[in-house]
Design brief:
- The complex is a heterodimer of chains A (about 800) and B (about 160).
- With about 800 residues, chain A is α+β, with helices and mostly antiparallel strands.
- Chain A folds into three domains: about 190 residues, Alpha-Beta Complex (Aldehyde Oxidoreductase, domain 3), CATH 3.90.1170; about 325 residues, Aldehyde Oxidoreductase, domain 4 (2-Layer Sandwich); about 160 residues, Aldehyde oxidase/xanthine dehydrogenase, molybdopterin binding domain (Aldehyde Oxidoreductase, domain 4).
- Helices cover about 30% and strands about 25% of the residues of chain A.
- In chain A, strands 3-5-1-12-9-10-11 form a seven-stranded mixed sheet, sandwiched between helices. In chain A, strands 7-15-14-13-8 form a five-stranded mixed sheet. Chain A has a four-stranded mixed sheet with strand order 18-26-27-28, sandwiched between helices.
- The relative contact order of chain A is 0.12.
- By secondary structure, chain B is of the alpha+beta class.
- Chain B has two domains: about 80 residues, Roll (Ubiquitin-like (UB roll)); about 70 residues, Orthogonal Bundle (DNA polymerase, domain 1), CATH 1.10.150.120.
- Chain B has a five-stranded mixed sheet, with helices on both faces.
- In chain B, a hairpin with a 2-residue loop joins strand 3 and strand 4.
- The longest helix of chain B has 17 residues.
- In chain B, about 55% of the residues are buried.
- The chains are: A alpha+beta (about 800), B alpha+beta (about 160).
- The interface between A and B is large, with 57 and 59 residues.
Chain lengths: ~800, ~160
């Protein structure tokens, strides 16, 4: 046959996304786009009281409305559903999908309506009259820990959801917490930095609010549930369990998902309720979250206070770190709520060779929306606390913040490095990332620019932050869901390739990156590869997309399943071509004997032969399809360095971000274009936290930032053009060397901005400013000459 | 109920609608044009942006009855004869989208932005899309996408 056109290798290339054609034409199908015959609409009546006893619920007017199918109170739902489970091994109070007798935060569901259309469902929900006897509400987490003025759950004294988790030196090796090493470090210290820091509460705010369509088919006894979720297989597990069904009887579909950012991991009350109602009524039902509803009903993120003490010698050598963490988890324990702050403990070691660490963690109930994962999930908090403390130390010792970091880095020859908190960092070269960032930013010139601006009376500051993050989650020992991922690769009869992945994307571009890998692996055009995901009837097994695991775990298993099929295909080809399978090369849509291009057979012809195998080669079964499960032996630990330059308006206190440089090392990159997009998005959220985003409750428990009118979601005008660069330190944990990148942007950006603001305000003797950096706060500092 | 006539993507549509029905819901649920998305309830996010009589408008803040007699274009009507609009191409070329939920509204806003100012500066682009939220991209690739379209259109003239 004539020589086929040469196909370029795609791994490592900026391949345009294969998801985009449908999305840029409005042809994607999100949950709210799903319409089924006979489908009715669900609306929730929610508490506007932060804490109280439900005295009565009057549903008569709602039930009497023409077109209202059913109305349920919490007591009615409790007959359909057991309490909601959590996904962590921590103790948890009973949590009903719809409150039965007590409400514990504004937005907790108290009743449910099913009606002909969404407007009517809302009308009917509004017509429900709920009488609630208010109880005192507690909003301040440190006050809540005293048990005053109220205990939210009877069996959790002083509102302690998790009383105390110790971690650090000794504990990681399984020994009891022994403070002698940390005490000795602080005794030796020549300087100690002590600071209380707040990593405040955020609203994840995917632009697509959540939504559910549940369709129980009584004749078959099966349930199909569409949901805007990051993990349809986990959803299937829980929906089956709570509805008394087997997992074989539930099909979960995550169609196009309009962003998740961690908040669509949790399995929510609305998912349980819609499935139970569909089962009870035998009709399909749909619920879509309003944005205002999302602010109270979708989990929040962050909200951890740290008391940080950093001990060092005057030459900048860090001797020890103490970190007492208090997490405000809101009113209930959700799927991963209790586990998130433990990741802050796990990453307390940051990028440094710290001889002794002691962290403790206390998790506390308050009358707020529960927290759970939000992009970074515990790691941005750790990075923020440690990097702000390092910046304070540099300032105290008058050492350049870059030099201080360099002095304390874990060195490249120390990897794999077991930290004082028990993490085993896989690989790293932190000095390289730092140097790269300083060079890309032209740090020395920036310092001169800053000083020149200051000489003219302007308030300009520079900030620097390192980060290391745990990604590619992970070994099953670390994940209650199981830490593996699954893939099935099929060479179809026409030679095209379909592959399923359990890594269910919501913007990450897995349809493109995984296809790049398979196209290279089989030497076929990427147009001949289709990646299927997000439907448990199609994707046999899976865990989902979170913890920056899609590429490191999901990508790896795609390749491994591909390897199995490729090996079988080589056997068919070898038989057909009377060659040895070891001598075959897959390239340019053919399979050929190495060094003998004339021997090439079309890839599609070998595929066709495998499905009509006459004669059937000895020892082979027909067909070309195989699956793989794979779990990594360890997490991955990407890292990087972020730098920023900020100017504060002396008259108004308004900060402006002038420059943001990010050097990220995510290991080997499959598609640098997609990686850039991931970093940009993470940066935007990290900067958003530092500068404009904050969930605020009133003292009596009302959410004051309950819509986009009050919660400042970053807009295009809030950012300068980000400057990106990368170093590449592959991980040994998986064959591609990819570490993960989805959350990285949120780690370094936040502390580097706060440090830049502190630098800009240095003339006022400011040592630390808590986020978010609202102009009023900075204006007061300026007005008071640093006295706060 | 009120009788309305709206031309949507070049096709005349008549319907009896509740006076309170939002244009966004009319498009999505009556006409099944689900490319117009709804991301908030306070006119901030812009995911529902369409063209009404040639100008970008947030369809969550217009009643369907107010669009009576109007010419509406949604994202589904933007490509002509299967040929992507320069903005659609720009978003694809420059990785201007991730989850894709804000994308239709972002593109329909940019249509008017470029109509008013065919060669906008980066600052003008950022200001022009300030009424549209994207939570995925950090906006940089969206800016690139609109610049890409601006250059392509200039070349096409």
């Amino acid at each position: 046959m004539a020589a086929p056109p040469v196909l370029p290798k795609l791994v490592g290339q900026r391949v345009k996304r294969r998801e985009d054609p449908r999305l840029i034409q409005g042809r994607g199908t999100y949950v709210d786009d799903v319409a089924l015959v006979g489908m009715q609409h669900v609306a929730f009546k929610r508490s506007d009281v932060p804490h109280g006893k439900i005295r009565s619920i009057d549903t008569k007017a709602a039930a009497a409305m023409d077109g209202v199918e059913a109305v349920y109170t919490g007591a009615d739902i409790a007959k359909l559903l057991p309490p909601m489970p959590i996904g962590t091994p921590f103790p948890s109070p009973e949590h009903r999908a719809v409150a039965v007798d007590t409400v514990r935060f504004v937005g907790e569901a108290v009743a449910v309506v099913v009606a002909r259309d969404r407007y009517l469902a809302r009308d009917a929900a509004n017509a429900i009259v709920v009488d609630i006897d208010p109880l005192p509400a507690v909003v301040d987490v440190e006050q809540a820990m005293t048990g005053k003025p109220v205990v939210i759950h009877p069996n959790f004294a002083n509102n302690l959801a998790v009383p105390l988790v110790p971690s650090g030196t000794g504990v990681a090796e399984g020994k009891p917490a022994d403070d002698s090493a940390i005490d000795a470090a602080f005794k030796k210290a020549e300087v100690v930095i002590s600071q209380r820091m707040v990593n405040h509460r955020l609203a994840p705010s995917a632009i697509e609010p959540r939504g559910v369509v549940a369709h129980f088919e009584p004749g078959k006894g099966t349930m199909t549930i569409w949901s805007s979720t990051q993990n349809p297989h986990i959803l299937r597990t829980f929906i089956a369990a709570l509805n008394g069904l087997g997992q074989d009887q539930v099909r979960a579909i995550a169609p196009e998902v309009g962003g998740g950012f961690g908040a669509k991991i949790n399995i929510y009350a609305e998912e349980y309720v819609c499935s139970a109602i569909s089962k009870a009524l035998g009709i399909p039902v749909k619920w879509n979250e309003d944005r205002t509803e999302a602010f109270v009903a979708t989990t929040h993120g962050r909200d951890i206070i740290a008391y940080v003490d950093l001990a060092a010698k005057r030459d900048g050598t860090v001797l020890g770190l103490k970190m007492r963490l208090i997490a405000d988890i809101g009113a209930y324990n959700m799927l991963l709520t209790a586990a998130i702050p433990t990741l802050t403990q796990m990453m307390a070691n940051a990028n440094y060779d710290i001889p002794a660490i002691r962290t403790t963690l206390t998790e506390v109930f308050t009358n707020k929306t529960p927290t759970d994962a939000y992009r970074g999930a515990g790691r941005p908090e750790a990075t923020y606390f440690v990097e702000r403390a390092m910046d304070m130390l540099a300032r105290e010792l008058k050492i350049d913040p870059a030099d201080l970091r360099r002095k304390n880095f874990i060195q490249p020859n120390q990897f794999p490095f077991t930290t004082q908190v028990g993490a085993v960092y896989d690989s790293g070269d932190y000095g390289k990332a730092l140097d790269r960032a300083l060079k890309v930013a032209n740090w020395e010139q920036l310092k001169k620019d800053r000083d020149a601006a200051r000489a003219k009376g302007r308030l300009v500051g520079l900030g620097l932050s390192m980060y290391v993050e745990v990604c590619g989650l992970g070994p099953s020992a670390a994940l209650p869901t199981g830490g593996w991922e699954h893939a099935q690769v099929t060479i179809e009869r026409d030679g095209r390739i379909s592959a399923t992945t359990g890594a269910s994307p919501h913007g990450q571009g897995n349809e493109t990156t995984f296809a790049q890998m398979l196209a290279d692996q089989f030497g076929v055009p990427i147009e001949h590869v289709t990646i299927l995901h997000g439907d448990t009837a199609v994707v046999k097994q899976g865990i989902g997309t979170f913890g920056s695991r899609s590429q490191a775990v999901g990508g790896t298993v795609i390749h491994l399943a591909g390897s199995k099929v490729k090996s079988k295909m080589a056997k068919f080809a070898a038989a057909m071509m009377e060659a040895s399978e070891e001598d075959l090369v897959f390239e340019n849509g053919t399979i050929a004997v190495k060094g003998a291009p004339a021997s090439a057979k079309k890839f599609a012809d070998i595929a066709a032969y495998a499905y009509v195998p006459v004669p059937l080669p000895a020892g082979l079964e027909p067909g070309l399809s195989d699956e793989a499960f794979w779990e990594p032996a360890n997490n991955t630990y990407p890292f990087g360095c972020h730098l920023s330059m900020i100017e504060i308006d002396r008259e108004t206190g308004e900060p402006t971000l002038l420059k943001l440089v990010a050097v990220d090392d995510a290991g080997t990159l499959i598609n640098p274009l997609i990686v850039e997009g991931q970093i940009h998005g993470g940066l935007a959220q990290g900067i958003g936290q530092a500068m404009i985003e904050e969930v605020v409750y009133s003292e009596d428990g009302q959410l004051l930032t309950g819509s986009f009118l009050d919660y400042a979601l970053p807009r295009a005008i809030d950012f300068p053009r980000f400057e990106l660069d990368a170093t590449v330190t592959p991980t040994p944990v998986n064959p591609f060397g990819a570490k993960g990148v989805g959350e990285a942007g949120t780690l370094g950006s936040t502390p580097c901005i706060v440090s830049a603001v502190v630098d800009a305000l240095s003339e006022f003797g400011v040592k630390h400013v808590d986020m978010m950096l609202r102009p009023e706060k900075l204006w007061r500092i300026i007005q008071q000459g640093g006295r706060s | 109920m009120a009788k309305i006539t709206v031309t949507v993507n070049g096709k005349r549509r008549q319907a009896d609608v509740e006076p309170r029905l939002l244009l966004a819901h009319f498009l999505r649920e009556h006409l099944r044009l689900t490319g117009t998305h709804i991301g908030c309830d306070t006119t901030q996010c812009g995911a529902c942006t369409v063209l009404v009589d040639g100008r970008s408008a947030k369809s969550c803040t217009i009643f369907a009855v107010q669009a009576d007699g109007s010419d509406v274009m949604t994202i589904e009507g933007l490509a002509t004869n299967g040929e992507l609009h320069p903005l659609q191409k720009g978003f694809w070329e420059e990785h201007g989208l991730q989850c894709g939920f804000c994308t239709p509204g972002m593109i329909m806003t940019a249509v008017t932005l470029l109509a008013d100012n065919p060669k906008p500066s980066e600052r003008e682009i950022r200001e022009g899309i300030a009424g549209n939220f994207c939570r995925c991209t950090g906006y940089q690739h969206i800016v690139n996408a609109i610049q890409h379209a601006s250059k392509q259109s200039a070349r096409g003239r």
